[in-house]
Write the structure tokens for this entry.
Amino acid sequence: MSLAERKAALIRMAARTIAIPYQDPETHCTIWMKLEYLLPSGSTKDRVAAFILGHGVETGAINEETIVVEASSGSTSISLAMACAVIGVSFRAVMPENVSRERMLIIKRYGGECVLTPKAAGILGAMEETRRMAAADPRIFLPRQFENQLNARAHQRETGPELIQQVGTTIHGFVAGVGTGGTLMGIARALREAGHPTRIARVFPEKGSACFQGQPEICGGIPGIVDGLSTILDAKEVGLDEDIRIDERDAINAARELCKRGLPVGPSSGLNFAAARVMARRLGPDKTVATVLCDRMERYFSTELFQDVDCA
């Protein structure tokens, strides 16, 4: 199978997910949740990986000798490891040394490599290391998830239109946490292009007592939500509403609630779901709010999400 044929197979794999409604008993609003954790590697980053690597193959930037290298301690590195396995090129994830073991296991199971950088330098240190590696080796291709506009375009062309079609009515509010900013920016553009008068808000976690591995701090932070690194999000272009801030503990509890409803999600999905409820209160009764459930719970075994589970 040629590289182009493998690229086509990759694009088909990251093609579509469903959205389901939740009736909020407090506001009587309908909250639509797009189940992005159903994508092959278990997260919405599969769309970005497929879109960026597919474009790289199409333009000739990626060939059989390419080594894809990305700074990511979370879902993007897992999605890229899967995508590189599909198209048959090498992948190296550059991550802070305190990243959780389960994430490294998943990456390595796909055939990827893990390059660890000092914990104190955080994700910025990992990003600097990828640039150093690329300068030293012309075979290296950098997806640059925090600045590559193809990240947002994947959601503008795919996730957003799918969501609009599946909801089938006016979307009055949309919320999402910001890591790279691609999901929020891409879906916001799709909503604006479709003429929806949507109030769009980004979501931030308020630092609390939740503890995670693989983050810049030992305690605090929702995995995948990184404030201040993205150059993709343009607040003025999409007309962002007032930011929504959610206590980390409330985000964890919301994720656990979703799991108990049969939706096997991670902390960032809980953050989005909790924020959707806040947006529903802003909008008033009987409105339609949408968000995304970003990734699956299995990559968070060593985090606060599972600290209340006793297997004894």
User: Anything to note?
Assistant: Residues 149-167 form the longest helix (19 residues). DSSP finds ten helices and ten strands in the chain. Residues 212 and 303 are 5 Å apart (CA to CA). The radius of gyration is 19 Å.
